[in-house]
Amino acid sequence: MNEDTQEEAKVDEILKSGPGGAIALASIATVIVIELWFVFYFAVFLPRGVIQ
After folding, report:
1. Residue-wise pLDDT tens for the chain (52 aa)?
2. Domain that holds residue 25
3. Where is the chain membrane-spanning (predicted)?
C-alpha cells in the first residue's frame, strides 16, 4: 500500500504542473502550418498574377 501511495503522489505532482508540453507542441505545429501557408501563397498564388 505504501508504494501505491508514493506512486499516486508522483502522479499528482506531475499533473499539477499542467499541460505545458502539449500546449507548446500545439503552438509549434500551428506556427509551422501558418508558415507553410505563407510559403505556398507567395510561391504559387502571387507569381500567377491576377486571374481574369
Report:
1. 677 888 998 888 888 888 888 999 999 999 999 999 999 988 988 877 776 6
2. 2-48
3. 20-46
